Amino acid sequence: MPVDLPYSGAVEVIAHRGFSAVAPENTLAAFDAAVQAGADAIEFDVHAAGDGTPVVFHDAMLSRTTNGVGPIRRRTLEQLKKLDAGSWFAPEFAGERIPSLREALGHIGDRTGRIYAEIKGFRELEDIDRMLRVAEEVEQLQRTVFISMNWTVLDRLRSRRPDVAIGYVVDEADKLDEAIGRAGGDPRALVDARGDLVDADPSVIHRAAAADTEVAVWSLDEEAQAQRAYDLGVRRITTNEVARLMVWKTTL
Known about the structure:
The protein has helices at residues 28-36, 77-80, 101-108, 125-137, 151-160, 176-183, 195-200, 203-210, 223-232, 242-249, and strands at residues 12-16, 41-48, 54-56, 114-121, 144-148, 165-170, 189-194, 214-218, 236-239. By secondary structure, it is an alpha/beta fold. Strands 1, 2, 3, 4, 5, 6, 7, 8 and 9 form a nine-stranded mixed beta sheet that branches. Strand 6, helix 6 (176-183) and strand 7 form a beta-alpha-beta unit.
């Protein structure tokens, strides 16, 4: 049976890098597809470009999802905007560009309930401040949860804005309890764990609940996976298969 979570309620289906099963990840096309599929929230990744501009991109290197090469942190926004970030996925997405964080937040607007911005890379701590400032300037700070595997990033965010929502991303089992300890008692913090870690150790949900902390999971693409997580008490589920899990959600 589900545990009595402090943030229990309706399931939040979170589109991983947008609706990345049907459109190139971390692009405006993927965000539009997520909105059209009815996603409750959208997750994307953020790096600092070479000129300090926050941009939406997953990898440290450009080659997997663009026609560029080399580290993203060595290219300015102007240089990045010349790259094709869609053709790798399918010909119909040729010409899709790498969005800036400002552009992505503005484009999503209020078309989804919440935005999860995972900070992947930065050159200096001031880059994190810029990401925070952009969210404030486009009036998306209250809608945005900044998450990261690098918890120094979250410490920096919290020192700048005590009210900002943050999430401790966990991809190793031995880090779960540390994340719970950090998030515990903070009403604006959660633990965002790889789904199989929670499946292997369901007691983590109870330990988190005892610390007044919510656990979200990523990335579950099958209905059976989502159902197991739901039965454990998880209410925030990140997925590549947005449409599939939106259908599953209607069966609850």
